[in-house]
Write a structure and sequence with these properties.
This protein is of the alpha/beta class and 1254 residues long. The chain has an 8-stranded mixed β-sheet, with helices on both faces. A 7-stranded parallel β-sheet has the order 3-2-8-9-1-11-10, sandwiched between helices. Strands 27-28-29-30-31 form a 5-stranded mixed β-sheet, sandwiched between helices.
């Protein structure tokens, strides 16, 4: 943070006697400003006491930090003025001041004024786990009552919207309506508005239809502009003039739609649209790219209209209205069930003496305000508090909701004529990302656009503000004191284009853009990986061959591993600026954060991949917590104590510390019961059967089974006599389990995890539930809803670890390096596609189910609500992306997996043309956003066309070969396992493009460089045999363009016939690999997939990387070493299972193996050695399997697992395939070490021999 305050920050601190909205951009120092304002309030002129301020923060942690900052500031002031009585007083008051969350403040009101609403003062605040259990129980009882009554409308609702198997769908509908209603200050009013939507459908003032009309007109008005430009394009000398007739026809229809007076007219015109076919007449003078542009834009419009007719205007307008009327009964029943559920929940909570946080807020509002129809009456308590509190300060105001707004307004002085307004609201609407928690950013935006802009240099002196209540103002904090300029340029470039008021509610203009407020000092004599010279953000797209999310996530994780290793390398370390040291230091793992939109499915994969590659990592989720080994075992044991007939938990316990069984022994139990009935095949049955067996061969196993049964019986007996906490304590401590996990890797963290579970068990004892069964239900709900357990969840790697966290969790944090994964992950639009859609403003929309005709149709109300939800969802995702990008201080890397790169790139390229023409995303284009890449890539491609150098876009294949790179002056390439030249150019600009929302001057479509035509992007970096064959057959292709001159000759020797033969061999190998079944332990063979050839290669390379040569004297030694690698989690069971120990032992016995063994003793061996060097104006990068130093010269060894023909033919094939690769390796080693490479050796595991290359 800068030592001196900016003018805007001083305005935010000093302006008073009015309502103030501070729009504080990311990294603008809003917390410091808020602290300073509070300190000035309590120590400056007209000072007040700190307990006469209400400071509302979003989290308890933020409140604690705020108090600590204020206390420290006051302590510093007291050091300079030790006898200041006011400072001493304020320090004494600060701990009890109302610096807290809205929930805690409402609880304070409730505890001090409970008598106003006849609430029992002995109430207890229930936790989320208990409330979810209660909701499920109340829901089950309520539905059972309705079934017993046989209510006709209820039965119809079940028939129409139930699943037929259970009531889960109906329960979900009721809970969604219930939750949304409770976020409103007066739920009954909201319910009435929902029903009014259906009864006033024929009324011209229906707000749902008005919203629908407005959104469609906005969108089609954008298409009108597009068509005007398309007509201009068609009329060019080189334009597709034959398309003009169809384009003009569409344009006339569009004009008619835009001029529609109401929804009825608009619906009729859209339903009657017909599209004229484009002419097929030849146009020899027309440019292909202009024809494609017109076709592409027209196809977009046709798709948009098709979506409207499919989802909104599904029939004529009269029929649509009839469906709405007919659906009113079903919606009414949903509302009735939701209201009944709310009443039953309140009754049940009162009976149990508990409240939840939403109750606290509603009770507080009841204490402060009485509602009578449309009139509000503020109570004496509200008046008392309004007069007492001198100022209401609200942090993170963009995340407030309407209920919280009513509460805080009730204690403010807005309604008091003899007092100045006193609400001070701080936030950034661009960071409002809690719509799922029913935040209402519209509150912020309404005030932002109605409050006047405050400027201290020309503002009036407000001495008589008491008599002028209209001086509410907004103050902008735009300077960012966190990030380097390249991060800010990237963020501005994207959001200046994508975030606009019509669609998102906020205009990202000069008042919203981030301005650099912090100048990073020069990093002298230390590598900073090009920080000072590099002006770009990396966007890395991984071209995956399969549209499989799991493999895509793993591919992104592996790429992250390689980037992190490049940052952490000892040979050329990375430095970041440390504000505490006021100097640069080496980067640490804890400086790096990996952010994803969701942790489900991502956190586990990333953490595991990082840990597998010796990178400490942690993720903070409840789900992650319950997946750690020590907790999984305890939950499984508790499950078996409750019900030993559950086989999966029982298997987990048997193989754990508590069971002590081996996999072979479990297999024996299964074999023993192979002829038993289904029930008798359960492990608990088999354990009992073996225990009672007289078979001598089972004597040892029988004893173990008996011992286990005794332990289990004792624990089951204790569970009926002990509390859950005492039972768990007994299991953990009296069995020695706590000490046992303490001896495991990260033992203290594992013990800490157990402590957390014990704490949760203790908390459970304080709920209205009891018993082991209910505790397990309680834990299940904690997992299902990802309810936080503690702030210290992780993988037990300590604080210096890469953090994998959701973007939401990262809000308010900052990291020197941010890797944002999932750039191309589909945005979740399910809320707009469900059978029931629900919105706070527009209410409920459902399909109409005609039970008589057995038909289901989407209603116009549902279509309108769904469009609103979709718009809100996309707007929220824009804000989520903004939060992610602004977490980075020094480097931002964005990763995404793409299937069908060419098609995606073509679509992004067309959108970049639109941006060049219009400057911003149109309303219509915003509706089409599906992924974060849809926001980033078109801007990045336009950036490339303008040579602004803000982005560095790189596309790599799934096996991590760089295939194109749009980097300007790029100092780095992605790490790979193979040699990868990476193209660079020197056309970078030092400054980012100006952020002006105007058409790119004089820029036409034909002048925009196409991404796929970039000569650098086309430059190949790796070719396969098949590609070489194609290159030779294609006379227009320079198959040597990508290679240094002195290596080209290696490929000229391969003639066409040889290539065809090699292709046949390759194809045969692929077929053989598909049939290859690795050796896998019998116990897991039916549960695991066989490894593919490339995975088998990875496994062999892993063994050779970790092999302890000094301990290998026999085949058994090899097997033991592989088992050790498996036990230490250096490889997984699938990898270990496919390794043939004989192969490894043959290698160690071979001449080269013995030479390596000797070199290991002298510490002259380097394994898995990464390298990067410049060659022929290209960056070449890769990883060398092994090299050793003999007599001051290098011996290079490369392992191959390719299945080739035996004998000389196979040897020659391997030489042909890999000689060029080893030439690169040799050249790299010579440049990096200065030592001569005297031998290049391939060791083939398939042939069991070494092959020397000339």
């Amino acid at each position: 943070m800068a030592k001196s305050w900016t003018v805007q920050q001083l305005d935010a601190m000093n302006t008073k006697d009015r309502n103030i909205l501070v729009s504080a951009a990311a990294g603008s120092g809003k917390t410091a400003v808020l602290v300073e304002r509070i300190v000035k309030k309590i120590t400056g002129e007209n000072q007040t006491d700190i307990d006469r301020l209400v400071v509302v923060t979003f989290t308890r942690a933020a409140a604690a930090e705020m108090k600590a900052r204020i206390r420290n500031r006051l302590d510093d002031m007291l050091d300079e003025d030790e006898n200041n009585a006011n400072l001493i007083k304020q320090i004494a008051l600060v701990n009890n001041a109302q610096i807290t969350t809205i929930d805690s403040f409402c609880l304070w009101i409730l505890k001090n004024h409970f008598s106003e609403i006849n609430l029992d003062p002995g109430f207890r605040v229930a936790d989320k786990g208990e409330i979810t259990l209660l909701e499920n129980d109340v829901m089950e009882d309520m539905l059972e009552d309705y079934y017993q009554k046989g209510d006709e409308q209820f039965i119809k609702l079940i028939d129409a919207y139930g699943t037929g198997r259970n009531d889960a769908n109906i329960e979900e509908i009721i809970k969604k309506i219930y939750a949304l209603a409770r976020s409103n200050p007066w739920p009954d009013e909201w319910y009435a508005q929902v029903l009014d939507t259906y009864t006033s459908i024929d009324n011209g003032s229906n707000k749902v239809l008005a919203n629908l009309y407005e959104s469609i007109v906005y969108s089609i008005s954008d298409y009108k502009k597009k068509y005007e430009y398309m007509i201009e394009v068609c009329n060019r000398p080189d334009g597709p003039v034959s398309y003009l007739s169809a384009v003009n026809s569409d344009y006339m229809a569009i004009c008619g739609i835009v001029n529609s007076q109401d929804i009825n007219e608009l619906a009729k015109k859209i339903s009657n649209i017909s599209f004229e076919r484009l002419s097929t007449k030849k146009m020899p003078d027309a440019l292909d790219e202009l024809k494609e542009y017109v076709k592409g834009q027209r196809d977009k419009y046709k798709k948009y209209i098709a979506g409207l007719t499919k989802n909104v205007f599904t029939a004529d307008i009269d029929s649509l209205m009839e469906d709405v009327h007919a659906n009113a009964m079903a919606v009414g029943m949903m509302v009735q069930l939701s209201k009944d559920f709310a009443e039953r929940m309140q009754t049940e909570k009162k009976d149990r003496g508990i409240v939840e946080f939403n109750d606290i807020e509603h009770y507080a509002l009841d204490i402060l305000v009485r509602k009578n129809g449309i009139d509000k009456e503020y109570t004496g308590v509200a008046d008392e508090l309004a007069k007492y509190f001198d100022e209401i300060l609200i942090d993170e105001y963009q995340d407030s909701n309407q209920l919280q707004e009513e509460i805080l307004t009730a204690i403010s002085r807005e309604r008091l004529d003899d007092k100045p307004d006193n609400m001070y609201m701080v936030g950034d609407v661009k960071q409002s990302i809690y719509k799922f928690r029913l935040a209402c950013p519209e509150l912020f935006m309404k005030k932002y656009y109605t409050y006047q802009t405050y400027k201290s240099d020309n503002a009036e002196d407000i001495k008589d503000a008491i008599t002028d209540k209209q001086k509410a103002c907004r103050i902008e904090l735009q300077k960012n004191f966190r990030s380097r300029k390249n991060i800010l340029d990237t963020t501005n470039d994207v959001f200046y284009r994508v975030m606009n008021r019509n669609y998102c509610g906020i205009e990202y203009d000069s008042s919203q853009q981030l301005n650099c407020g912090l100048d990073y000092p020069e990093c002298k004599d230390k590598r900073n990986f090009g920080w000072e010279s590099e002006k770009s953000t990396d966007v890395v797209l991984i071209d995956t061959s399969e549209d499989d999310e799991n493999s895509s996530i793993e591919a992104e994780a592996l790429y992250a591993v390689k980037r992190i290793k490049a940052l952490m390398t000892d040979e050329n370390p990375y430095y970041v600026y440390d504000t505490d040291l006021s100097d640069y230091r080496r980067i640490q793992y804890g400086d790096i954060a990996i952010l994803t939109r969701t942790l489900t499915g991502w956190a586990d994969t990333f953490v595991n991949v990082l840990l597998d590659n010796d990178i400490p990592a942690m993720a903070e989720t409840a789900q992650q917590y319950f997946k750690v080994r020590e907790i999984k075992v305890l939950i499984s044991l508790l499950t078996c104590i409750d019900n030993p007939m559950q086989d999966i938990p029982m298997a987990s316990v048997l193989l754990s510390y508590f069971g002590g069984f081996t996999e072979d022994e479990l297999a024996m139990l299964r074999v023993y019961g192979k002829n038993a009935s289904k029930t008798d095949k359960l492990f608990i049955k088999q354990i009992k059967a073996v225990n009672e067996s007289c078979d001598a061969a089972l004597k040892e196993l029988s004893y173990k089974c008996g011992s286990f049964l005794d332990k289990l019986a004792a624990l089951r007996k204790k569970s009926r006599l002990m509390t859950i906490y005492d039972l768990l304590w007994d299991i953990v401590y009296n069995t020695g389990y706590y000490d046992y996990v303490g001896t495991m890797p990260a033992g203290k963290k594992r013990q800490s995890n157990i402590d957390v579970l014990l704490d949760r068990a203790s908390s459970f004892e304080g709920t209205s539930y009891s018993g082991l069964f209910n505790f397990l239900r309680y834990i299940e709900r904690l997992q299902k809803y990802d309810i936080e357990l503690t702030d210290s969840q992780g993988s037990g790697v300590g604080s210096d670890a890469v953090r994998v966290m959701s973007i939401h969790k990262s809000k308010g944090l900052e990291f020197p390096v941010v890797i944002m994964a999932g750039l191309n992950k589909q945005i979740n639009k399910m809320d707009a596609r469900n059978r029931l859609v629900i919105d706070q403003e527009l209410g409920i929309g459902t399909d109409y189910v005609n039970l008589d005709k057995h038909t289901k149709t989407s209603t116009i109300i549902k279509g309108a609500v769904a469009r609103k939800i979709l718009r809100d969802s996309i707007s929220e995702e824009e804000r989520v992306l903004y939060v992610a990008m602004t977490r980075a201080r020094e480097k931002l890397i964005m990763i995404g997996s793409v299937t069908g790169t060419d098609k995606k790139m073509s679509a992004w390229q067309m959108l970049s043309v639109e941006l060049a023409l219009n400057g911003i995303y149109s309303y219509a284009e915003c509706e089409n956003i599906d992924k974060y890449s849809d926001m980033v890539m078109p801007v990045a491609l336009m950036d490339k066309a303008l040579n602004s150098g803000i982005f560095n876009v790189c596309i790599i294949t799934s096996d991590e070969d760089v295939v194109c790179d749009t980097a300007a002056d790029n100092d780095e390439v992605s790490d790979t396992d193979n040699v990868q030249p990476c193209v660079t150019d020197n056309t970078r600009l030092d400054e980012g493009v100006p952020y002006i929302k105007e058409k790119a001057s004089d820029m036409h479509i034909s002048e925009l460089p196409e991404y796929i035509k970039d000569p650098d992007a086309d430059r190949k970096v790796k070719v396969t045999v098949s590609e070489l064959k194609k290159m030779q057959e294609d006379s227009d292709y320079d198959n040597n363009a990508f290679m240094p001159d002195d290596i080209k000759a290696a490929y000229k020797e391969a003639g066409k016939d040889e290539l065809e033969a090699a292709d046949r061999i390759t194809n045969q190998e692929k077929a053989e690999d598909e049939d290859f079944v690795p050796t896998i332990p019998d116990f897991i063979s039916d549960k695991e997939e066989t490894l593919r050839a490339n995975e088998r290669g990875t496994a062999y390379h892993r063994v050779m990387e970790c092999l302890d040569y000094n301990k290998i004297e026999s085949l058994d030694d090899v097997k033991a070493d592989i088992k050790k690698m498996l036990d230490s989690e250096k490889m997984n069971s699938m990898q270990a299972g496919c390794i043939r120990a004989d192969d490894v032992y043959e290698f160690v016995k071979s001449p080269i193996g013995q030479r390596i063994k000797e070199a290991v003793k002298k510490n002259n061996v380097r394994r898995e050695q990464p390298f990067m060097f410049e060659y022929d104006r290209q960056l070449v990068q890769g990883v060398i399997d092994l090299y050793m130093i003999e007599d001051d010269k290098i011996v290079l060894v490369d392992y191959k697992t390719d299945r080739v023909k035996k004998g000389k033919a196979g040897e020659q094939e391997l030489i042909r395939r890999y000689s060029v690769q080893l030439d690169y390796y040799a050249l790299a080693l010579f440049q990096l070490t200065g030592l001569e490479v005297k031998e290049k050796i391939i060791y083939s595991f398939a042939l069991g021999k070494q092959i020397s290359l000339e």
